[in-house]
Write a structure and sequence with these properties.
The complex is a heterodimer of chains A (289) and B (324). In chain A, 77% of the residues lie in helices and 0% in strands. Chain A contains 11 helices and no strands. Chain B folds into 2 domains: 215 residues, 3-Layer(aba) Sandwich (D-Maltodextrin-Binding Protein, domain 2), CATH 3.40.190; 96 residues, Periplasmic binding protein-like II (D-Maltodextrin-Binding Protein, domain 2). The longest helix of chain B is centred in the last third of the chain and has 20 residues. Chain B is globular. The two termini of chain B are 32 Å apart. The chains are: A mainly alpha (289), B alpha/beta (324). At the A-B interface, helix 5, helix 8 and helix 9 of A face helix 1, helix 4 and helix 7 of B. Chain B: One of its GO terms (cellular component) is periplasmic space. Chain B: It comes from Streptomyces cyaneochromogenes.
C-alpha cells in the first residue's frame, strides 16, 4: 500500500504546473515516454512469465509445488470455461462492490460530520486510532456468529477494513481547507451549503478519491480473505477448495485471477480519479507528463 | 495460527452463549417448520473426502424424503463452523471429536448427534499417516522423538495420536517437536526438509506418497482400529428445542453412511462434485470407513490421551453428555 507518493497534495496555484520543459523537443520525448510506459509494464510481466516457466524446468523449485507458467495458463484456460468460476467471480465482485460502496458512503458521511465539528474530532480521534489498526480478519468468528457464511459476514469484514481508509482521508481533507478561501467564502456571505459545495468539497475531493482508491484494493483483499477463511461463495472459496484438494496448478490459476482483478480495480479507480479530478493540479501535471 | 483462531472462536462463542445472545435469532429460519413442509437445513462442513456420504445421501434423496432440504456450507475449519452452529446459522456441523471435546470443556453448548467417519483400522493404509522423505533415516514411530513433525492443528487429534504411537513404539513422546501447517503444504515442506516428518491426511497423503514419501506410522489405526474420528454435531439448544429435526437428520445421515459404506465407488465418484482432487489421486486415495455408530471405547481413549497431553486445560470432557 505505497500510495503515499500519489496522495494529491494541494499546492497554491502558481505558474509551476507547466514545468520548465515547454519546448518542442521535450514534447516529442514526452509522447514517446508515454507510449513506452505501458510497454515497459508489459515487459516486466513477460519477464515474470518467462521466469515462472524457467524456474521449475531448471529444477530450482519442484514443478509439483510451483508448476511452470504454461501449466498455470492451461489451468486458467480450463477455469475460464467453467460456469462455477464465473459465478464465483460474480459473487466476489458483488461482495467487493457492495462492501466498497457502503464503506465509501459511510466514510464520507462520517468524515464530513466529524470533520466539521472540532469537538467531535477531538472526542473521536483516539477511538478511531484504536479501532483502525484492528485487523478485519480478527472479526471472523464474530462475523460467522452473526451472519453464518452469507454475504453479510463477508460485507462486515470488507466494510470494516475499507471504512477507515476513507474516513481518515476525508478527515485529512476537511482539515486542509485553505483559510483564505474559507474567509473569502464568508466575506461573500455564502451559506453553509455553498461553503460545503465550493470550498470544502473541492478541497476534500482529492483526499476522498485517494481514500476510495486505497479502499478499493483493501476491499478486494478482504473479500477474497473472507471467502477463503469463512467459506462464503466466491473466488476465495474456490481457492480454498483447490488448496485442500491439492490441485496446485488450479490454485495458481486462481491466484493469477485475483492478481489481475487487483490490477483491473486499480486501473478503474485511477480512471475515475482522473475524471473526477481533471481540474486538479496533480492530474494536470500527470496528464502533461 | 489455526489453533489461535479456533481458540478465539471458542472464546467468542462462550461469551455469546453466556450472555444469551446469538441464539435468539438463530432458530427462526429452519426449525420452526416442523410439519409436512420442507425444512432448510444448513450443515457446516469442510470440503474433504470424509463428508462424501452427506453429498451422496443428498443425491439419493435420503434427506428430501424426510422433509430436509440439505444445504452444505463449506468452511475452512472449526473456527468458522463451531460459532456458526452455536449461533444457529448452521443447524449442524462436522468436526473431529477432539475439537468437540475441547469445545465442551470450554463450556461451548454443543452436542454430537450422529457419527461421521472412522479410521480404516488398517495400519499403513489409513486416512492419515506420518510421512517421511524417501531417504529419511526414520524407520519407525519411536525414532520421531527429537524430530520435527508437522500437524495441521496443534493440541488436537493429530499430535495426541502421534504421541501415542511414539509411546507405544517405545519412544519418548515429549521429545517430538510439533509445528503447525495446512495438510496441502506438507508434501512440499517434507520435500524441502523444513520438517522431518508430517502427519498428513488425505488427499495430501496420497499426493505425498506419489512423490516418494514413505509412511512410518498410522496414528489413527494404531491408537484404536475402530477410532471414531469425526461426527456431526448440533447446538444443545437445537437438540432440546427441536428433537424431531435432530432425529430426522440423524436418520438421514445414518442411511447415507450405510449407503456410502456399501457403495464405496459411488462415494469416491461424488467427491469430484465438491472438490478438485486430481483424478489419479482420487483413484488411489484411502477412503475412511463410515460406521453408523460411534465407538465409545475409542472416544474414551482419545479423551484420556487429550487429558494426558493437557489439551483440555485440566478439565475432563463429559463423553456421555457429548455423545449420548
Amino acid at each position: 500500500m505505497s500510495a503515499s507518493g500519489s496522495t494529491p497534495v494541494l499546492t497554491k496555484p502558481a505558474g509551476t504546473a507547466t514545468g520548465p520543459g515547454g519546448v518542442g523537443g521535450g514534447r516529442v520525448r514526452r509522447t514517446l515516454d508515454r507510449a513506452r510506459t505501458p510497454l515497459r509494464g508489459l515487459a516486466g510481466l513477460a519477464g515474470l512469465v518467462v521466469l515462472l516457466e524457467v524456474l521449475p524446468h531448471i529444477g530450482v523449485v519442484s514443478a509439483d509445488y510451483l508448476p511452470p507458467a504454461s501449466e498455470m495458463g492451461r489451468a486458467l484456460w480450463q477455469l475460464l470455461g467453467e460456469d462455477a468460476f464465473w459465478t464465483a467471480l460474480g459473487d466476489t465482485l458483488t461482495g467487493w462492490g457492495l462492501g466498497l460502496a457502503i464503506a465509501v458512503v459511510a466514510g464520507v458521511v462520517a468524515g464530513v460530520v466529524i470533520g466539521s465539528a472540532p469537538v467531535l474530532r477531538a472526542v473521536t480521534a483516539s477511538t478511531i486510532e484504536f479501532l483502525r489498526p484492528i485487523p478485519s480478519v480478527a472479526l471472523i468468528p464474530v462475523a460467522v456468529l452473526l451472519y453464518g457464511t452469507d454475504l453479510e459476514s463477508k460485507l462486515l469484514l470488507v466494510v470494516y477494513a475499507s471504512f477507515w481508509q476513507v474516513l481518515v482521508q476525508v478527515l485529512a481533507g476537511m482539515q486542509d481547507v485553505d483559510p483564505v478561501a474559507e474567509d473569502t467564502a464568508r466575506s461573500y456571505r455564502m451559506g453553509s451549503w455553498g461553503r460545503v459545495r465550493y470550498v470544502l468539497w473541492p478541497t476534500a475531493l482529492p483526499y476522498v478519491m485517494t481514500g476510495v482508491r486505497l479502499a478499493a484494493t483493501v476491499a478486494l483483499v478482504l473479500t477474497i480473505t473472507a471467502e477463503l477463511v469463512i467459506g462464503s461463495p466466491g473466488l476465495g472459496n474456490q481457492l480454498a477448495v483447490a488448496q485442500t484438494s491439492g490441485a496446485v496448478p488450479r490454485v495458481y490459476a486462481l491466484v493469477l485471477v485475483t492478481g489481475l482483478l487487483g490490477v483491473a480495480v486499480n486501473l478503474v479507480a485511477r480512471a475515475i480519479e482522473r475524471r473526477a479530478l481533471h481540474w486538479h493540479q496533480s492530474m494536470r501535471r500527470e496528464g502533461q507528463r | 495460527m489455526q489453533r489461535r483462531v479456533l481458540g478465539l472462536a471458542i472464546a467468542v462463542v462462550t461469551v455469546a452463549a453466556a450472555a444469551g445472545c446469538g441464539s435468539s435469532s438463530g432458530t427462526g429460519g429452519a426449525s420452526s417448520a416442523a410439519g409436512d413442509k420442507t425444512t432448510q437445513v444448513k450443515v457446516g462442513i469442510i470440503p474433504i473426502v470424509d463428508v462424501a456420504p452427506l453429498y451422496l445421501g443428498q443425491q439419493k434423496g435420503f434427506f428430501s424424503s424426510r422433509g430436509i432440504d440439505l444445504k452444505m456450507e463449506t468452511a475452512q475449519g472449526g473456527a468458522a463452523i463451531i460459532p456458526g452452529v452455536v449461533s444457529g446459522q448452521f443447524q449442524f456441523g462436522f468436526s473431529n471429536v477432539t475439537s468437540l471435546m475441547i469445545a465442551q470443556t470450554k463450556g461451548v453448548p454443543i452436542k454430537s448427534v450422529v457419527n461421521g467417519t472412522a479410521s480404516t483400522g488398517d495400519t499403513g493404509k489409513d486416512i492419515s499417516g506420518v510421512a517421511v522423505k524417501e531417504d529419511s533415516p526414520i524407520k519407525s514411530a519411536k525414532e520421531l522423538a527429537g524430530k520435527t513433525v508437522a500437524v495441521n492443528t496443534l493440541q488436537n487429534i493429530g499430535d495426541t495420536t502421534v504421541r501415542e504411537v511414539v509411546r507405544k513404539d517405545g519412544g519418548d513422546p515429549s521429545k517430538v517437536k510439533f509445528v503447525e501447517m495446512p495438510f496441502d503444504q506438507m508434501p512440499a515442506a517434507l520435500d524441502g526438509g523444513q520438517v522431518d516428518a508430517a502427519w498428513v491426511g488425505e488427499p495430501a497423503l496420497t499426493i505425498a506418497k506419489g512423490q516418494g514419501a514413505r509412511v512410518v506410522a498410522s496414528p489413527f489405526a494404531e491408537t484404536d482400529p475402530n477410532l471414531t474420528i469425526a461426527t456431526y454435531f448440533a447446538s444443545t439448544k437445537l437438540a432440546q428445542e427441536n428433537p424431531d429435526l435432530v432425529k430426522k437428520f440423524t436418520e438421514a445421515v445414518t442411511e447415507s453412511l450405510n449407503y456410502a459404506s456399501e457403495h464405496p465407488d459411488e462415494a469416491r465418484q461424488i467427491v469430484t462434485t465438491y472438490t478438485k482432487i486430481d483424478g489419479e489421486v482420487l483413484k488411489k486415495l484411502t477412503l475412511p470407513t463410515w460406521p453408523a455408530e460411534y465407538d465409545m471405547a475409542s472416544l474414551e481413549k482419545l479423551a484420556s490421551l487429550g487429558e494426558q497431553d493437557g489439551i483440555f486445560g485440566g478439565q475432563k470432557p463429559d463423553l456421555d453428555a457429548l455423545f449420548s
